[in-house]
Model the fold of this input.
Amino acid sequence: MYKNKLLTTFTLAVYIFLLAPLVIITATAFGTDSYLRFPPKGFSLKWVQNIFEVEMFARTFVISIQIAVIGTLIALLIGIPAAYALSRYSFKGKGFVQGLFLSPVIVPGIVFGFSLLKFLIIRFEMDIIPSLLIGHTIVILPYIIRVISSSLENFDYSIEEAAISLGASGLKTFFIVILPNVTSGVIAAFILAFINSFNNVPISIFLSGPGVSTLPIQMMSYVEYYFDPTISALSVILMIMTAVLMFAIERTLGLSFFTK
Amino acid sequence: MALLNLEDIKVSYGKNTILEDLNLDIEKGELISLLGPSGCGKTTTLRVIGGFITPDAGQFKFDGKDYTNVDVHKRNFGFVFQSYALFPHLNVADNVAFGLKMRKESPEVIKSRVSEILEIVDLEEYANRYPKELSGGQRQRVALARALIIKPDLLLLDEPLSNLDAKLRVKMRVGIRKLQQEFKITTVYVTHDQEECFSISDKVAVMNKGVIEHLDTPQNIYDNPKTEFVAHFVGYENFLDLTLDRVNGEIQSMKTSNGLSFNVESNRTFDRSLIKGAVRPEDIEILGEDYENAQNVIKGTVGISTFLGKGYQYIVETELGDLVVNDGSNDRYNNGDQVNLFIPKEKIILV
Done:
């Protein structure tokens, strides 16, 4: 009993530590004062309304979504064949290739962002949007490869051989036998990569420029000049979006998919 | 001319040689089993035939044509996997229809062929079920139907029954044999189960370390194994070191290292001096004390005994080492009993 109580208290403390900031932000979003204040005084929705009045929020939101969707799709196009090759074939330098694909997770985001700035924008004078796209695609690729590799590893190789022995070519087998059986992995990889790209700061901060930015970067620069609860209100909306997304995953795939 | 020839097939991974100059001929319509312990190369041989492994050297000929480098999906061989390898996202009917769809058969042909084959394997009511909703035996039959529907020129089975329970295994192997004979399909069957393989095969190839040690009918392998390994594998558990003393017609008189004499009825001759005499545990008789010093008799002390159901198995310590004896009689011997073991001359196989 004693041990149980201790564990309960500890777990509770961890939850409070994790969730309290979110509760505070949510509360401050609906105050009437024009600065962040907790506990808030009164109740108003004017800060929520204000989000839509700051034109840059809407504009960067659209850019963020575009970058996240297109970047994730490109990463899937590269990541699925790469994951397949890595999980099915053994070849010289496989360890190196594997390391290369996973390295964006290991290299600090700031370092990676800075080198992209030096390379893409300064050296090749690339536009901001394609640079952002390239940066995000590279950063989310490891997640895609990881998730899809794990679902491919759970897929019995002899099922592919069965398809081939029945007369399907290798490429046909990939599309009509392998892909249909790893769809849940592909969806999970998509969502994970999407969230990662949407929330990314260290890469975007180096690659965004005047008038073209992503939402997290726009939020940061807003906080630099204004201290009103608009940012809290925006955070609440993003939290709700994420919660809805996670709920959808839980319903379709089950969250256990990520802990496997 | 045999339907299928493997000629000097060699397969190795790095320094590991899996198959060493393997030669095998298979006649049309025959069911041949590859039997051996794990790691003997039987599955590798099957996969070379199936085309999943390209041999480092040697040639695989099928129906007189060189098939060594023909792509798997162009071979028209049916393959049944140990794990069944059914397509999880397709129901039974679509699993079975897969091969016909790849051959671009018309929907009507596919429909009638699928229902025909499902009737043969007794799975008509399960056409709309998914693999995960089936029992092991049902999955196995789907796998078989899926391989048979393409009317394969050759059927390859890789330990198809090893995931089933003992009773079902016996039932299924009879079923496989029946289908094989009905369709007259040349079949290569890989297994490590001696009983299973003897019961359904026309011929058995016993493999060891990448080499076929004995290729013959099940009866001949059972009665007259060619090598010590084969003898061991088919149930000869006792091996006596013998040297030839003299030959008297069909009777060879043999001596053990400690001077005991054994008569052996065999016409096999060897060009080496040390020969092994292999004896099955059930062929050794336990005799009373009066038989001491008789021909083909060795005395010993009973050690561990285990109950086999129709009798007891004794480990008997003798001057020639421990001998395993299965005694079917009602007599019961205890640890420490002195016994005389009689080995009939026609029951000793020289290898």
In short: The two ends of chain B are 31 Å apart (CA to CA).
